[in-house]
Design brief:
With 402 residues, this protein is of the alpha/beta class. It has 7 helices and 26 strands. Helix content is 18%, strand content 30%. The protein binds ligand LQZAQKY5 and molybdate ion. The site of ligand LQZAQKY5 has 26 residues, from helix 3 and helix 6.
Length: 402
Amino acid sequence: MSKAGSLLDWQLAQDRLLAAIAPAGTEQVPTQSASGRILAQAVIARRNQPAADLSAMDGYAVGAGDPTGPWQLVGESAAGHPFAGDLTAGRAVRISTGALVPVGANAILLQENARIDGSQLSTITGSKAEAKHIRRAGFDFAAGDTLLDAGTPLSPAALALALMGGHGAVEVFRRPSLAIIDSGDELASDPAAALPHQIPSSNGPMLAAMAVPYVCAVERIGPVADNKAALLAALETASAADVIVTSGGASVGEHDLVRPALEEWGATIDFWRIALKPGKPLMVARRGKTVVLGLPGNPVSSFVTAWLFLLPLLRRIGGHPAPAPQTVTRLVEADLPATGDRAEFLRGVAKADTVRTFDEQDSSALRVLSQANALIYRPPGSPALQAGSPVQVFLLQNGGIA
Ligand SMILES: Nc1nc2c(c(=O)[nH]1)N[C@H]1C(S)=C(S)[C@@H](COP(=O)(O)OP(=O)(O)OC[C@H]3O[C@@H](n4cnc5c(N)ncnc54)[C@H](O)[C@@H]3O)O[C@H]1N2
Ligand code: MOO
């Protein structure tokens, strides 16, 4: 427990959530659709790359001998259409970038340096054919090489490498399914029709947008009325999901019914209320294999707790070896006040070396959140900081993990 009495330290809470989660099973998927997935098996090259010596330039492949020529032109090696014969000294073929270098050729004369007279090829003064324009067979990798280790996230480059290694399909971890329940009598589904006592239900779509890269399916449920029966029905609808997220109704008011509804539904509450600002009323519960995250309703609290807990949880189930966001260091542009018992995640803008926080830090202020590219981390009980002091920052781009 934290200095804040009954509130759990947010890092202990994150560790506790992730420690209890094993990656889901694995599945084979077409490599070209596997962007962002985590490899469950290493990718071993099935071919040499390149498979043969290839020209790196457009020009002429020349037979062994004097690199300044002249040569007799005897044919062409185009990409995908190799020259049929061998090349001997004094002979050359037209060659394009990516085309097979014929047996017997040991250098490429660049097109820009060539002089053609009928079938005679010679060099312009001061130039010569050079071996450096040949990409040697297997220079990038050879069959049997480990190209990607198990646990690697498939970046676009890694995905291309797996394809180049001869793998049309890869074994990856399965991604979880997610159900998102918005709750609150004040929520309006149609933002254009929200009356003064209502508020557009923005959390569900925001959470879905955040989760999309990490899930196989998202089901949105609600807005659900502030009564236990409606919440129980929503939980029942969501019960097939690997992860259920609720937003709103997590606090202590008499209309905050998520906890009693979860208990009645048969879930066990793992923890509730953490030393985090914004995001104190976070709740984690389980029923069977389903993990339930009860996020606070305030939109910024919902975002921050989803960023720190939901996304790491989804990544861990999806096999990510380092699912939690990481900090970088920046210098604060202006003085920061001391903090209380809760860790604070201030919305701000990080540049290459510095970071500034917005004056407005209300946990419902979406305008500032949408302008932020960083959360400035202030541990619980931090002293006041002077401008120019280093501070830990979570960059929002890429979920803070890349
Ligand atoms: N007496 C106390 N009151 C509150 C405490 C406390 O400890 N004691 N905690 C405060 C904190 S911190 C937070 S955060 C909020 C969170 O409360 P809930 O999770 O119960 O959320 P709601 O009360 O249902 O809603 C809060 C706020 O967010 C709006 N909301 C809810 N759902 C959505 C949605 N889907 N899209 C957009 N906005 C949503 C809702 O209308 C409220 O304005 O509690 C404090 N109170
Ligand atoms: O912690 Mo609440 O999340 O202040 O707004």
